[in-house]
Structure formats: structure tokens, C-alpha cells
Design goal:
The protein is of the alpha+beta class and 242 residues long. The chain has eight helices and nine strands. It folds into three domains: 79 residues, no CATH class; 69 residues, no CATH class; 64 residues.
């Protein structure tokens, strides 16, 4: 049904992961979890969720407000830095996943009109960056404008660096996954995990409820829910790797 998943805001999503971890541990605050393990569990929950979205082949947009902070330079002068407003552990996960950290700003013209631009390069006052080596540092804000700029950056990298760029088709691979194969693999994993420890049954059902938003058995998952079934299978594999 969708090509792109947008999360607004990223900080709220991270806070929800923290709340989920607290509920699992039956505490009010993540700091109440012994040995500081709650912080690591929250970061892991957040990271695994985002990575599964990208593994399914969806585009991912993470929106953040701006955090302004003042830093001192070597000459004791001060400069205001604009950066994404999110917890450190949250930013560490986001920074590893995204291809562009862009800052959106409004530029006013002399006639009183304004235009919005996306800045993709680090400056002394703005935190930004991109994995696209030749992406323009300033792009007029718009979907088509960004797509054109990325295509141009890819073409330049092929020409200048003599590299070959290929398209990734992860989503098509998942969509073409055989439903029967997924079900069979999930059934085998269920037998393995529950045979090792019956408590895994409840843990798997908790993951199913989290993905589908309601309680349901593996046998109740239908073929038109194959994408979500694939996520369940990934969750089961995570449990198996513990």
C-alpha cells in the first residue's frame, strides 16, 4: 500500500520505544531498570524497528525539530549551532541509517516573497550531511527537485569516480516471497523455540500483537498480509539468535 514511511517526530517515536521497554519491565522510568540496561534496550528496540522498515524496501523519512545550542570557538567567540533535536542515543541510530541529514530553511527575497531550501552540507552553524558525494549543498525544497539532484549526484559519481551504481530491489524481493515458505519457516522456528523454552510462545505472540495491533495466531495470518508475516519471521529469528 505504501512506498515511503514518514515518522513525525523522531523523538516521539524514540520516546514510545522507551515507554514500551518500561512496560515490558513494569517500571515507570527507564532509569529504574537495573544496571542501566533500559537505555540499551530502548536503543535496540528503536534501531531494530527502523532497520526492519528499510529491509522491507520502504523509503524512510525521519522528521525532527531544531535544537539551538551555543558553542565557544578557540578565540572565545560564540556561535549558535542548529542541530536535530533528539536524544544522543536516538541520534546515533538515525545517523547510521539515513543517507541525508537535511536542514530546511526559508529564504526571503527582496520583494517580500519567500522560498524554502534544503541544505545538505555541514556548515559552521548547521548540522547536515549526505552519503551522496556530489549532491548539491542547497536544493529548492520539493520532491522532484530532490530526486533530480540525487540523480545528478549519482551520474557525477559514475562519471568522475568511474563507479557503477545499481538499484536496490529489496522491496520487490520481499513482495515476491513465497507465503507458504514463510509460514513453513515460522512454524519450524516456533517448534524450535517453544520446544527449548515454552515461554517463547508468549514472547512470539507479544511480537505478533505489536506488529498487527491485535492478538492473533500465526495460523490466522493471511496471504495478503505477507509483508507483516515477514516481519514476524524476522522477530522470531531475533529471538532465536539470543
Amino acid at each position: 500500500m505504501y512506498d515511503t514511511i514518514t515518522i513525525d517526530t523522531t523523538t516521539i517515536a524514540y520516546d514510545m520505544c522507551e515507554k514500551y521497554v518500561c512496560q515490558q519491565e513494569n517500571v515507570q522510568k527507564v532509569s529504574e531498570i537495573a544496571w542501566g540496561q533500559g537505555y540499551g534496550a530502548t536503543k535496540k528496540e528503536f534501531e531494530e524497528t527502523l532497520r526492519k522498515i528499510t529491509m522491507l524496501g520502504y523509503g524512510l523519512i525521519l522528521i525532527s525539530h531544531i535544537d539551538k545550542r551555543t558553542e565557544k570557538r578557540a578565540d572565545d567567540s560564540e556561535v549558535e549551532i542548529l542541530a536535530p533535536s533528539m536524544p544522543k542515543r536516538c541520534y546515533e541510530v538515525v545517523n547510521q541509517i539515513v543517507d541525508i541529514i537535511g536542514y530546511i530553511d526559508t529564504v526571503w527575497n527582496e520583494d517580500g516573497t519567500s522560498e524554502r531550501y534544503l541544505y545538505t552540507r555541514q556548515t559552521p552553524t548547521v548540522m547536515a550531511g549526505t552519503r551522496f558525494k556530489y549532491l548539491a549543498p542547497k536544493i529548492k525544497l520539493g520532491y522532484n527537485e530532490l530526486v533530480d539532484a540525487i540523480n545528478e549526484a549519482i551520474d557525477k559519481q559514475e562519471e568522475i569516480d568511474d563507479v557503477t551504481v545499481v538499484d536496490r530491489i529489496e522491496k520487490k524481493e520481499v513482495e515476491n516471497y513465497n507465503f507458504i515458505e514463510i509460514r513453513k519457516e515460522a512454524e519450524l522456528l516456533w517448534e524450535k523455540l517453544v520446544g527449548k523454552d515454552p515461554s517463547y510462545g508468549n514472547r512470539i505472540m507479544d511480537r505478533v500483537e505489536k506488529i498487527f495491533g491485535k492478538k492473533m495466531k500465526l495460523s490466522e495470518i493471511t496471504e495478503n498480509q505477507v509483508d507483516l508475516f515477514y516481519l514476524v519471521l524476522l522477530e522470531m529469528k531475533d529471538l532465536d539468535s539470543e
